[in-house]
Design goal:
Strand content: under 5%
Helix content: 55-70%
Order of helices and strands: HHHHHHHHHEEH
Strand order of the largest sheet: 1-2
Distance between the termini: 46 Å
Structural class: mainly alpha
Number of helices: 10
CATH topology of the largest domain: Arc Repressor Mutant, subunit A
CATH class of the largest domain: Mainly Alpha
Number of domains: 3
CATH superfamily of the largest domain: Winged helix-like DNA-binding domain superfamily/Winged helix DNA-binding domain
């Protein structure tokens, strides 16, 4: 349904073309969408004509995902190449995180690739490694296409926290590191308020954690910390530095 134009004339033309032309019959159309509010954009007359009856399906649970994954294993992998518990583990991880079958299959495919590369069976340990690699790839892809100021803010947070030996830092420390990074790269320095907005955006993407803490009568302060694996943090920092070197 997401690919169908919903302005009145186009939608009515879409419906008319699907009406039975040569026989008398009732027509039942099944529209599928991931957007719960898709009927809101329909013309009221078209919506009345449809006599909508909505069914909302729950996300896949672990048992559903196991069934889907076993079909993929049988079709794509050699018999005996998958250790016991691998399918159950991938299904459990996916159902807890998102319930998305496509992402569960992507984790299976990445695990199988690592097993083929290592010349071994697909083990539980390889599933963990594949999960980390998928997370790393997702974060790096996001940062490669992110605005340069957002990349600079992330690099500054990494450098400031590294200087603090992994302890949470305040906004002032992060802003000082940001100004230093801008000086080294020739990037325009944004105001402290704009820098705070960049930190909020990085927090929204789960690249760092930015929380306001109350200190009683001493007021409130923001604490910034990283919640990523150390090897991923190093890779992110190296990627940002490379991007700025490419900019000259």
């Amino acid at each position: 349904m997401d690919n169908v134009r919903r302005d009145r004339d186009a939608f009515l033309t879409f419906l008319v073309r699907r009406l039975p032309q040569r026989i008398q019959a009732k027509l039942i159309l099944v529209f599928v969408s991931n957007k719960l509010n898709w009927p809101d954009h329909l013309d009221p007359r078209a919506k009345s004509f449809l006599k909508l009856n909505e069914l909302i399906f729950k996300p896949y649970d672990a048992m559903d995902l196991q069934h889907i994954l076993r079909i993929r294993v049988e079709k794509a992998l050699c018999p005996g190449s998958v250790d016991p518990g691998v399918v159950e583990k991938i299904a459990a991880m996916a159902s807890q995180d998102h319930g998305d079958a496509r992402q569960a299959v992507a984790l299976l495919a990445k695990s199988a690739y690592l097993a083929e590369k290592a010349g071994s069976k697909l083990t539980l340990a390889l599933v963990d490694s594949a999960g980390l690699e998928l997370d790393r790839d997702r974060y790096l892809t996001l940062l490669r296409s992110a605005p340069v100021q957002l990349q600079a803010a992330m690099a500054a947070a990494i450098e400031a926290i590294s200087k603090a030996k992994g302890e949470p830092i305040g906004t002032g420390d992060a802003y000082d590191a940001y100004k230093s990074f801008c000086d080294r790269t020739g990037l325009r320095v944004m105001t402290g308020r704009a820098f705070g907005d960049l930190l909020d955006e990085l927090d929204m993407y789960s690249l760092l954690r930015s929380r306001v803490r109350s200190r009683g009568r001493y007021g409130r302060t923001r604490e910034i910390n990283l919640d990523l694996a150390p090897e991923l943090v190093e890779k992110i920092h190296a990627t940002i530095r490379m991007n700025f070197q490419m900019r000259g």
